[in-house]
Amino acid sequence: MLVSDQNTMAMKSYQNQAEVFLNGYLLNDSFVPYMSTIGGIFACKLVYDLTQLMSTIYFKSYSNLTKIQRVEWNNRAISTIHALFITTLSLYFVFISDLFSEERLAGLITLRSSALSTFALGISVGYFIADIGMIIWFYPSLGGMEYVIHHLLSMAAVAYAMLTGEGQLYTYMVLISETTTPGVNLRWYLDAAGMKKSKTYIINGVVMFIAWLVARILLFMYMFYHVYLHYDQVKVLHGFGRLLVFVVPLVLSIMNLTWLWKIVRGLKKTLAKRQ
Asked: Helices in 138-176 by DSSP H: which ranges?
């Protein structure tokens, strides 16, 4: 009986210690950014390894690819999973959640954040760290200097919003642009699989053009308009935060317009060949 009581007390002690650890560390707001960033990096590694394993088993064309093509194949799987994750949460925070709602009387919109919004940004920072590491390691096979610039700017803006809690609304508005990534990656996969002349390739090109126009052009215009309407709240941000709000979306907008022109040219060329 005494042994049973001792075991019960020991179990309660371990349970209390676990609760203290969860509440004091893992769920502590100051710990969330670092935990989520590390988790994002490990998630990228996990997706890479699983993609390599499953592709070897289920895709015959995978074994015919060169070594660097297989690396890019796996890398694009990571970016696709990240895009689906961050796009879903970005749409939720911008259009569904009341965290950044105008009707919510909870302080300035530009200074609002939550444990969940910070956690999601941390996952995204982890992804950008892992992805830019691969781009630099295999440079320029996975992307040229424009990809390096894009990732550095994105990582700086997302990390700042994560660590300070400032400007998270505008960060999520920009991250909605990741909705175009699965289409871009599917285009590459179809090309690598020798399906460039298929109807799927053409349909994907049209959908990719529409998605790019909406998510990377029109939505950016809406974001700049939102900043204009709430400039009195943007002014309270620290100097570096204001710089990121204006400069990063502007530079990305220029890059998005350049890439849109390339998409249009590629789509026109593909349609011309079909005719």
From this structure: 145-164, 168-175
